[in-house]
Design a protein that fits this description.
single chain, about 150 residues, alpha+beta, STM4215-like, seven-stranded mixed beta sheet, 2 helices
Length: about 150
């Protein structure tokens, strides 16, 4: 499987624990199985935040496949409710799936019927990242010679 963005991995891990299914990160083949989830890359928009950080707003359009559209929408609504019950805070996981102790806070989830036997879950969240800062040698002491004018 492709390495996922850490926050996307947190969402997928949370959903997959409640909706065991085949995960797809690339184009679906003709013989894909159901139930399944298609995880596309997240869409991001950047902006300024503070003097030390910048923010990125993300949107993930995750697609659920099931036997028919009604089952897909029911599964998506059930997953939406599970995220709501978790107060929209999902634990981040490392590359092995272990919980790190940090969280991603989801700001919005939309559930929409898709084409055919699908439902689309749209997740939105904003994250902060620190700017790269050059390292400087800190001053240990300052010695002044002479007087003040």
């Amino acid at each position: 499987m492709t390495t996922l963005h850490p926050e996307v991995a947190a969402i997928v891990s949370f959903l997959h624990a409640r909706f065991p299914s085949k995960l797809y990160t690339h184009e679906l083949d003709q013989n894909f199985v159901t139930p399944s989830m298609y995880i596309p890359p997240a869409i991001s928009f950047s902006g300024v935040d503070t003097v030390s950080t910048y923010q990125k707003s993300y949107t993930l359009n995750l697609k659920l496949f099931h036997k028919d559209q009604q089952l897909a929408v029911q599964a998506a609504e059930s997953l939406h409710d599970a995220v709501q019950r978790a107060r929209m805070q999902l634990p981040l996981v490392d590359q092995h799936g272990a919980i790190t102790g940090n969280y991603v806070r989801i700001s919005r989830i939309d559930v929409r019927p898709g084409d055919g036997a699908t439902a689309v879950m749209i997740f939105a969240w904003t994250s902060r990242y620190y700017y790269n800062r050059p390292e400087f040698i800190s001053l240990q002491s300052v010695i002044m010679k002479g007087g003040l004018k």
